[in-house]
Amino acid sequence: MTGTAAPTRTAAPQHLVRRRWASIVGIAFAALLTADLTHGTDVAPVLTAAAVVYLGAAALRSRRTAWPLFFVTIVVVAAARLLGFDADPTWVLLGLGAVLAVVGLVRGALRPAYGLPLQGLALLVFGAVAALAPAATHDVGAYLLAAGLLAHAGWDVHHHRTQRVVPRSLAEFCVVLDVLLAAVIVAVTALA
Q1: pLDDT in tens, the chain (192 residues)
Q2: Where are the alpha helices (DSSP H) in 20-111?
Q3: Smallest Cα–Cα separation from 27: which of 40, 16, 41, 38?
């Protein structure tokens, strides 16, 4: 007796929002950050914050800590701006990164090499760009920051593909945010 095969169920395609929520949040966050952008270097702390999140996740040896660390960096930047602190949030974030690096060293997070050692180097580079950009002339500082954001977007793509250090969702969010911020900085600077 020949039977017919039972129809197989295929998984329904995931809803776009569920699949790409990190990109959507990255777009919304970029819009929020650039809504009242007057100078390209106004968002310099974002570049430092991104590097701190990566370093923190590596120092704590937990990809799951990346999103909570991201929210901590938002609080630091928002508090500095809203409370009118004289300190640039970039420097506060660099201090937080230094504390996280020490925690990582105490916890023995020197291995793997793509973890704390590489993320520490990245914080030094991206943090230096974020710290130097506001001190440079208007256009040079803005373009320097835009280049730093695009370089970090490449960093995000690498981490998204290798699935190391941070969750893919954070890397996806960050690449969208970095690229959009860089594009807006270039446009605002060119049109000024």
Answers
A1: 555 666 555 555 567 667 899 999 999 999 999 987 877 788 999 999 999 999 999 999 999 999 999 999 999 988 887 887 777 899 999 999 999 999 999 998 888 888 899 999 999 999 999 999 999 988 999 999 999 999 999 999 999 999 999 999 999 999 999 999 999 999 999 988
A2: 21-34, 44-59, 66-82, 89-106
A3: 16
3-state secondary structure 127-169: HHHHHHHHHCCHHHHHHHHHHHHHHHHHHHHHHHHHCCCCCHH
Q: Which residues of 82-92 are buried (b: 16+ CB within 10 A; e: fewer)?
A: eeeeeebbbeb
Q: Cα 83 to chain center, whole Å?
A: 23
Whether the model pTM is above 0.85: yes
Tokens of 52: 């701190």
